[in-house]
C-alpha cells in the first residue's frame, strides 16, 4: 500500500487529484467549526453524553453535531435519498427506463436525487430543531429560531453534497464516502485522548483497554475479510466456430461477494429507526414520546434486536435489488456459457440464487454483529465509545475502495503493452 502511494505521488495527474481531495477535506473541516446560532452547546454535549444515537451522528459528522455547526446533519440525507431513488428505480417503470437511457438518464436521476436530498434534509432539520427545542437546547425557542436552524442545516447538507460530487469528479475515490471517512477519522484523536484520560484517572483498567484494542484489531481483520470475501462460481464457455476462427472455450468464474450490499443496510436500518423518534420528538411530554424514547433507546435490548433484524432484512432486500440471478443466467446462456453439471437457463438461475442466499446470510449476520458491537464493548470494558463496528466498517470499506482506484490509475499509467 505504501509503495502504491509513493508511486501515485510521482504521477502529476494523480498527485493533483490527491492534493485536491485533501484540500476539500480541509474545507470540510473548516465548515465543521461554523456554528449555528441560538444553540446551548454545553446542554447539547450533556445530551450526547447520555448515550443516545446522537453520539453516532457526532462521529459521522466529525464532531460537527456536538458543536452544532452547519454540517451537523452530515451527508446522511443524501445517502437516504440515493438509496430511496435506487429502490424506486426498480419499482417505478418510468425511472427504470430512464436509468437505461445512458448518460442523459443517469444525469436526470442524479438531479432527482439532489432534489430529494434537499427535501429530506429540510424535514430532518425541522424535526431536529423541534427535538432540541423540547430538550431545552435552544437559547430562544421561537418560530424564527426553528426556521433559522432548519435552513442552516439544510444548506450545510446541500454544500456537503456538492463538495462530495466535486471530489468524485476532480479528486480520487467516491466523494460522499470520503467525506464520511474524513468525519470519522477526525474523531480518532479525541477518542484516543478520552481513553488515555480515563486510564489515567482510574475510571477504566489497563485490561479493559487492552481488550478493546484486541477487539478492534479482530474487527478490522473481520471487516477486511468480509469486504473482500467472495464465492467463485466456475463458468465454462463453449467453443464456437465463426468462419475460420474459433471463439470461446475458456474457463472463468462469477465472483459473488459475501457482503454484496456494503454498509447500505446499516445506514438504511438506522434511518428507519430514527423516523419514529423524529416524529415522536414533535410531541414532547406525551406518552407516545416517552414510550418511543424508552423502547428505542440506543442501549436497550429491544432496540438492538430490531436493529439487527432490520439490517438482515435490508441486506437481503438490497442484494435482491442489485443482483438478479435470472439476468446472469440469461446472459451466460446468450453467449454460450454454462456452469459445469447444470443446464443453462432456470436451473442455473436457481443454483446461483441458492448460493447467493447462503453467503448473504453470513454477510448479514456479520453486519448485524458489527452494528451492535459498541453496546457489547461498552458493557464489557466500561468505555463509553461511539467509534464502533459501524464506523470501522465504513472506514475500512472506503479505504479499500480508494486504494483500489489508486491502483487502477497506476495500472493504466504503468501499462507498457506487448511492445516495449
Distance between the termini: 27 Å
Order of helices and strands, N to C? HHHHHHHHHHHEEEEHHHHEHHH
**CATH arch. level architecture of the largest domain:** Orthogonal Bundle
Taking all Cα atoms into account, the compactness measure Rg is 24 Å
Strand order of the largest sheet: 4-1-5
Task: Please state the structural category.
Answer: mainly alpha
- What count of helical segments does DSSP give? 18
Proportion of β residues?
Answer: 5-15%
Number of distinct beta strands: 5
What name does CATH use for the topology of the largest domain? Answer: Preprotein translocase SecY subunit
What is the arithmetic mean of pLDDT?
A: 78
Write down the overall geometry: globular
Which sheet architecture does the biggest sheet show?
3 strands, antiparallel
CATH classification class of the largest domain: Mainly Alpha
Domain unit count: 2
Q: Give the CATH H-level superfamily of the largest domain.
A: SecY subunit domain
Model regions low in confidence, pLDDT < 50 over at least 5 residues? 416-420
Measured as a percent range, the helix fraction is 55-70%
Amino acid at each position: 500500500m505504501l509503495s502504491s502511494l509513493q508511486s501515485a505521488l510521482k504521477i502529476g495527474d494523480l498527485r493533483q487529484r490527491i492534493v485536491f481531495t485533501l484540500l476539500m477535506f480541509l474545507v470540510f473541516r473548516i465548515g465543521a467549526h461554523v456554528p449555528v446560532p441560538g444553540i446551548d452547546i454545553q446542554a447539547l454535549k450533556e445530551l450526547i453524553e447520555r448515550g443516545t444515537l446522537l453520539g453516532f451522528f457526532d462521529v459521522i459528522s466529525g464532531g460537527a453535531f456536538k458543536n452544532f455547526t452547519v454540517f451537523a446533519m452530515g451527508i446522511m440525507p443524501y445517502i437516504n435519498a440515493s438509496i430511496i431513488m435506487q429502490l424506486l428505480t426498480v419499482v417505478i417503470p418510468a425511472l427504470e427506463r430512464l436509468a437505461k437511457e445512458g448518460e442523459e438518464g443517469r444525469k436526470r436521476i442524479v438531479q432527482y436525487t439532489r432534489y430529494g436530498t434537499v427535501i429530506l434534509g429540510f424535514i430532518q432539520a425541522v424535526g431536529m430543531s423541534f427535538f432540541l427545542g423540547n430538550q431545552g437546547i435552544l437559547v430562544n425557542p421561537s418560530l424564527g429560531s426553528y426556521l433559522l436552524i432548519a435552513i442552516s442545516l439544510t444548506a450545510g447538507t446541500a454544500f456537503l453534497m456538492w463538495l462530495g460530487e466535486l471530489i468524485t469528479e476532480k479528486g480520487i475515490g467516491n466523494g460522499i464516502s470520503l467525506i464520511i471517512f474524513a468525519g470519522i477519522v477526525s474523531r480518532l484523536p479525541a477518542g484516543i485522548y478520552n481513553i488515555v484520560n480515563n486510564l489515567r484517572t482510574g475510571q477504566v483498567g489497563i485490561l479493559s483497554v487492552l481488550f478493546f484494542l484486541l477487539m478492534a484489531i479482530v474487527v478490522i481483520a473481520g471487516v477486511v475479510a468480509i469486504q473482500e470475501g467472495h464465492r467463485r462460481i466456475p463458468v465454462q464457455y463453449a467453443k464456437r466456430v465463426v468462419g475460420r476462427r474459433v471463439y470461446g472455450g475458456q474457463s472463468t468464474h462469477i465472483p459473488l461477494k459475501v457482503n454484496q450490499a456494503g454498509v447500505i443496510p446499516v445506514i438504511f436500518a438506522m434511518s428507519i429507526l430514527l423516523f419514529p423518534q423524529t416524529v415522536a420528538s414533535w410531541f414532547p411530554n406525551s406518552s407516545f414520546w416517552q414510550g418511543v424514547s424508552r423502547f428505542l433507546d440506543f442501549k436497550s435490548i429491544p432496540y438492538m434486536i430490531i436493529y439487527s433484524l432490520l439490517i438482515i432484512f435490508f441486506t437481503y432486500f438490497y442484494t435482491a435489488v442489485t443482483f438478479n440471478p435470472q439476468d446472469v443466467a440469461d446472459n451466460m446462456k446468450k453467449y454460450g456459457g454454462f456452469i459445469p453439471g447444470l443446464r443453462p437457463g432456470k436451473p442455473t438461475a436457481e443454483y446461483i440464487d441458492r448460493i447467493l442466499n447462503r453467503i448473504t446470510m453470513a454477510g448479514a449476520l456479520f453486519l448485524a454483529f458489527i452494528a451492535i458491537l459498541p453496546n457489547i464493548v461498552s458493557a464489557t470494558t466500561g468505555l463509553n465509545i461511539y467509534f464502533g463496528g459501524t464506523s470501522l466498517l465504513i472506514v475500512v470499506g472506503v479505504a479499500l475502495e480508494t486504494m483500489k482506484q489508486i491502483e487502477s490509475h497506476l495500472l493504466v499509467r504503468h501499462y507498457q503493452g506487448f511492445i516495449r
